[in-house]
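Holo model, zinc ion. Inputs:
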Amino acid sequence: MEIKLRGLKQGEHSFFVSEPVKKYELDNEHFSENLDSSILIDVQGRNYYITVTTSTKVKFACDRCLDDFIRSYKVSTKLIYTENPSLDPEHQQEDLYFLPAGKDTADLTDDIRQNIILNLPMKVVCKDTCKGLCITCGVNLNMAKCKCSHKLIDHRWDALKKLQME
Ligand SMILES: [Zn+2]
Ligand SMILES: [Zn+2]
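Output:
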């Protein structure tokens, strides 16, 4: 995502960009829908405070039953571009970049891509009540019952059942 910074008036600017996921070189097995980004740029003096909120849908594999499911995914990326080379990056929380003389635009693609990847959840379940796979025969217990005994079932469920009965 390339945006023009130099020449923007002081104050806030907001706009919306929808881009094909291809542009971000994200693994297209999990990412297949467009990335929709709301962009807010706050111009203060020679600094550009940028917030990009990107939404898309991602295909995850459930950690319990291994089934694929699609879920909405939203990530905010904050960065600052400055025309002032002496602004001290130590005092900024967000990523700070220098916009050199003669350059009008900033390419945010890399920052957005990295942020999308960094914030992906490590563990996801298709639904809170997912029963997972039988550890003996491998059947998906959301879809079918099996004849194995499930003595090794997670005992947290027992506590929950008890709570519900009380
Ligand atoms: Zn599941
Ligand atoms: Zn089984």
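The pocket of zinc ion (ligand 2) is lined by residues 134, 136-137, 139, 146, 148 (CB under 6 Å). The chain has a mean pLDDT of 88.
Archived with the compound record.
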